[in-house]
Amino acid sequence: MPTTEPDKSEVPSAPTVLLTGASGYVGGRLLPLLEQQPVVVRCLARNPDKLRPLVKSSTEVVRGDVLDPSSLDAALLGVQTAYYLVHLMSGSADFEQEDRQAAKNFADAAKRSGVQRIIYLGGLGDDADPKLSPHLRSRHEVGEILRESDVETIEFRAGMVIGAGSLSYQLMKSLTDRLPVMICPRWLTTPTQPIAIDDVLAYLLAAKDLPKGESRIFEIGSPDVVTYGDLIREYARQQGLRRWLIFVPVLTPYLSGLWLALVTPATYEVGRHLIEGLKNPTVVQDAKALEVFPIRPMGVTGAIRLARETPLPKT
Question: Where are the domains of the chain?
Answer without folding.
Answer: 14-309
